[in-house]
Amino acid sequence: MKTCLSWLPAALGLLAATPALAQNELSNFSATGRGGVVNTFAPDYQALGINPANLGRQGNSLISFTIGEVGAGAGSQSLTNSQFKKLLFHANDALTAAERTALVANLTSNNALNINADATAFGLAVTLPPGLGGLAVSVRQRLSGHVALNQNSADIIVNGQQAAIVQQYYDAAGTPRGGTPPPLLSAALDGTQLQLALTNEFNIGYGVEVFNVPGVIKLTAGAGYRYIQGIGVADVRIGGGSLSAYSSLSPVFDINYGSLASSPTFNYQNGSGLQPVGHGNGFDLGLAAEVGKVIRLGASVTDLGSMTWTGNVITATDQSLTFPQYSGLATYDVVQNIVNQFGDSGKTLFTYQTAQERRADLPAKLRLGGGVRISELFEAGLDVTVPLNKVAGNLPTTFIGAGLDFKPVRWVRLSTGVSGGAGYSLSVPLGVTFVTPVWEAGLSTRSVAGYFTENNPYSSVALGFLRFKIGKR
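Predicted structure:
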């Protein structure tokens, strides 16, 4: 990758290049305006990947579809706002000695940087005749990046050969100083996580009513399936005395594999563009209930299944700390230096081995939601999303949020709430959607103040202008 922002254009670039670790509601501008609160709100194709049981509700329209809804967000719980913006938007700015020291200190965090982006190129839902439920399909991309660094890994990323732990065991020429041998990476970098996942998904889901006591309770059930093309994954997890590291990255990431590319056990994919380097299958299961005419409840398990990565697969195991083959950063291009850790072993902390394939679980989640819907003018809800594993692409921590939709007039819907977790600090979202009987368009952000506050910076935006509903039930 040429710049530190390559992850976001790569994800959104799929929108034009195809038919379309951790939050797929970012491409839903209404959900983004509620801070990600979505389980009981999501109708039609928006229910895919959230709770397919919502497709079993009798919708207000026969057909709904969208073209080109996108969203992206990035945040940090440790960087200052100025450091955060330089890392993401001004990576070529010069880095002074004092700034380098401050950067190392603030990169030392369990949530030094989190990046998410989603794009729904196309979504379609059909309400079937009474008693038969609803069906939906979509084509979507998801990007998730998570960076957690301890003091030593932050120091090495920024200062390279000049890092304190490196100088403790090696001289300026890289010769071991003798005496105590260098520590294992599992000890020196304990608590470090570097994760990235970028996928292209083709989704289908179905929901149907399974139980109904009129005026008392209505229960729907649903299931979803997705075929997944893997554009890239990188997953380094170091903790508890162990180290696990592997990656499989498409040529779009511009990784230099050096001598690894000629290995007979390496399925090298070069060239350019968004070539898939893996494939997989995912499944979602959900239940939803309407109690009386006001209360809504939802529970789902999403992203069950696995990926098989077959292109540009490299792995690494624990080893002693070696002398880095790069000097300290002269600019704020920290993200590029992190990405460099997945290339030629001569420029990384890891000694990689090539592999033909790597299997990995999908980022499974348990989603729970409750809400009240007074009328089409007001709806409020509470969501809890719990990551069920620690693979790349999943949430680093549990998400909790409360949100609401309110129509001050029938053609405008306002969304807001409060949310926290999932690697982000407490935030207040805001969204506005313009509504007509057949068309919707909206713009929203996960955090009203996140772009401006000095602590816990968070920049996010979601938008869509081509959401349509046809026919009346």
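Summary: The longest strand covers residues 217-239.
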